[in-house]
Amino acid sequence: MTPEQKQLVKESWDKVLPIQEAAAELFYGRLFETYPEVKPLFKGDMKEQGKKLMTMLNMAINGLDNLDALVKPLEQSGKAHKRYGVKAEDYDKVADAFLWTLGQGLGDAFTDEVKEAWVVTYTTVAGVMIEGAGYEKTEN
């Protein structure tokens, strides 16, 4: 991840923060509409789940300049998600819904460069979570 990509992610995230509750609703709506098979993995209050999602994303984005410090928390999160029934391939579904949500929230500011920066960021974060979960090769 280049310094420019980190900057693009941070700047675009600053635009999402004021609408984070709506962004979380958009994200989960899109995720469940496009991939209804993952809906049973989510139990409890979805507003609370949305807050947790935004908190985790904020932590990851604020930690982009010190990725080593993010490894342990992300690995733990990956293990927890696996216990909840999340499969390795579900990360691609989340990526699809998340990038769509960013596009909706950022509009014209969601340029190809911003999208690519987010793809790199998400791939990095998801990769650490997947590795931390210890999925077998056949689960990917």
Features:
globular; 140 residues; mainly alpha; Globin-like
Describe the protein in words:
The protein is globular. It has helices at residues 3-16, 20-34, 46-62, 67-83, 90-106, 112-133. It has one domain: Orthogonal Bundle (Globin-like), CATH 1.10.490. Helix 1 crosses helix 6 (112-133) and helix 2 (20-34) crosses helix 5. It is mostly helical. The mean pLDDT is 92.
Ordered list of secondary-structure elements with their pairings:
Elements: H1 3-16, H2 20-34, H3 46-62, H4 67-83, H5 90-106, H6 112-133
Helix pairs in contact: 1-6, 2-3, 2-5, 4-6, 5-6
Q: Flag low-confidence runs.
A: none
CATH superfamily: Globins
Q: Return Rg in Å.
A: 14 Å
CATH-defined architecture: Orthogonal Bundle
Percent helix, as a range, is: over 70%
Number-wise, the strands total 0
Written as H for each helix and E for each strand, in order along the chain, the element string is HHHHHH
Structural class: mainly alpha
Q: Assign the CATH class.
A: Mainly Alpha
Percentage of residues in DSSP E strands: under 5%
Tertiary shape: globular
